[in-house]
Amino acid sequence: MAKADLSKIVSYCDKLLRTSEVQDYDRAFNGLQVENNGTVTRIAATVDASLATVRLAAAEKADLLIVHHGLFWSQTHPWIGKRYALLWELLCNNLAVYSSHLPLDAHPVLGNNARLCAALGLYKARPFFFDHGLFIGFQAGAKIHRADLARRLRAATGAEPQVIPGGPEICRRIGVVTGGAGSDLRKAAEEGVDTFVTGEGPHWTYAMAEELGLNVLYGGHYGTETFGVKALAAHLSRKFKVPWVFIDHPTGL
Description:
Udp-n-acetylmuramoylalanyl-d-glutamate--2,6- Diaminopimelate Ligase, Chain: A, domain 1, six-stranded mixed beta sheet, 13 strands, elongated
């Protein structure tokens, strides 16, 4: 059985993703969140760290779980009920958890935004959407009919996107920021795009998109953020010679 050292994988990820350099939301903790006995024989990747995905990873005999949304976002004590069950599953199954939020979003090769751009056929993308001290997303010039872009997004995520047709039918400057960037349509428009692809946004963004003359395609928060953890896990699998598996636990959101 192939084995790798957990500390070496963590150090490599921290350097690759610039974990200590990238600012994030105050509640986010990037890096190793739970350790194991120090050995990795199988990597699992999923979007959200939860009791359900931990159990699925354990069923796959994984001992390292790579996630985009980690365990710690708000007060996490006391560890009772389902939280105790989560802790029990982690410890009994020797499962380490490594989380990367904005560092993985922004990575120019393995990140959610870079991989979604590639899946949409958007090339020569340049940095876009400056937030938390760095450009999180990418934008690219194109000449794609809005309906065709929606079809590409559906093929990439496996779900029908919600489309706000507030801009031109032919999309010529497309910005991509995965996840929950729908509340920042004005920021996207100010950076010069006529079409904005993201995961989700609130109801009032429909009227704002029309006001701004901006097409908005909501591909789902979960659906747009499966790309980074898959790419990172596949990269680690090649480098450290251990197998990996994707844990699909869609939220529909």
